[in-house]
Write a structure and sequence with these properties.
The protein has helices at 5-8, 11-21, 25-48, 52-68, 72-91, 99-120. By secondary structure, the protein is an all-alpha fold. It is elongated, with a radius of gyration of 19 Å. Residues 134-144 have low confidence and may be disordered.
């Protein structure tokens, strides 16, 4: 099951993040990929161990990084895992309620990451908006 990229990413927030990070954007996106994979592995292990305590920190970290890039679906899923895990700690119960969220988390992360990388790839042709001129083989830069 593939989710529409418009449902995965708030592209306005993504563009704002990209502008704010400037030249460091691609490097930070690489950190997001590395950290996200680690967080997901920790979340999956914590779920296997039924440890609400071990769910909180990696879910919190994934949530923050996802929202930074405008990855709304991933961020809200990680946020739900974190919040339910915190409640489970308070009530001293197993975090079984978030099993469906944990089960879909890795695929959601991979789809989100693909969408973000596709948007940042210099090899992908972008759709031109109104008023933007395309420079092809038969056009010269600087001539009208």
């Amino acid at each position: 099951m593939t989710i529409d990229t418009g449902e995965l990413v708030d592209w306005k927030a993504f563009q704002a993040c990209r502008a704010q990070l400037g030249a460091g954007f691609v490097r930070i996106l690489g950190y997001f990929e590395e950290d996200g994979k680690k967080s997901i592995a920790l979340i999956e292990n914590a779920m296997r161990d039924k440890s609400a305590t071990a769910l909180v920190n990696p879910a919190h970290m994934l949530k923050g990084e996802a929202y930074q890039f405008g990855a709304q679906a991933l961020g809200s899923t990680a946020e739900r895992i974190e919040m339910v895990a915190r409640q489970c700690i308070e009530h001293r119960i197993d975090p079984d309620e978030v099993l469906p969220d944990v089960a879909k988390l890795r695929r959601l992360f991979e789809q989100t990451l693909q969408a973000l990388q596709r948007e940042t790839s210099p090899l992908v042709e972008r759709r031109r908006g109104f008023g933007q001129r395309s420079f092809g083989m038969n056009q010269s830069f600087g001539r009208l």
